[in-house]
Amino acid sequence: MRTHYFKSNILLALFLVLTVSTKAQQTTASSDTRYSTRDERTGKERIVTDRGDKTYQLEFTDGKMTFLSVNGVSVPEEKWGDYKTMITEIQEQMKKDKEQARLDRIQAEKDREQAKLDRIQADKDREQGNRDRLQAQKDRAQADRDRMQAEKDRQQADRDRIEAEKDRQQAIKDRAQADKDREQAAKDRVQAEKDRAQAAADRKMLADLTADLVGDKLINDEDDLRMLTLSPTEMTVNGVKQSDAVHKKYQGKYSRFAKSHFSYMSDSSGKRVQIRRDN
User: Fold this and answer.
1) Mean pLDDT across the chain
2) Are 250 and 235 in contact (CB under 8 A)?
3) Are residues 8 and 98 in the same domain?
């Protein structure tokens, strides 16, 4: 079962890589802007975009616009102000597209690294499976020996009956010990009840904290929370470090979590949740 679990992780990681790649392609396809090959030697970049029934061509050198044409007709520099809004929109879209591409590359690299780790673990699991099979063979051989021993044990049982009286005396002592064990078990149950109550309180506090994150617009909804850390020194939400003001607010309201290094992690499938508090 462990091997199947890590095979699923590998498939999941590969799926994420494909998803990020597809998303990047969709982002480029949905935009009207197309980029030519950038000349790193001259720093020149050309952009062609269709807006309405017009085709605009812009050229930039080291981030400064040096050329503009509309439907193939060059626009003199003194007329560029007439297209200021359109130029600004294209420049903003360029920034957004480049930033999204950067983020997609980072995520893809993380997904590839995770897939590599999963493959390594899968190899370990297969090796463990081989060892388990060898052990099973040894166990079967041992079972055969055990059956032979059982026959000897039945013979020994006759002799054991002689010792039964001694065992009954020992049983009296064992019952006394059992009474002590029951008392300890009762104490353990009381402690377990306290632990369950604390766990319920922690779950309630986490639910309240999640609701506050949604209310403060730090996440879209409770399902959007993938990772959270809260310590005496900082707070992060989905990997983003929060401001001192946000940290102080949550540190004060959720001091039980904040006084130690508290972290919450949820995997993308929503099937595994880990809550760890470092005391």
Assistant:
1) 84
2) yes
3) yes
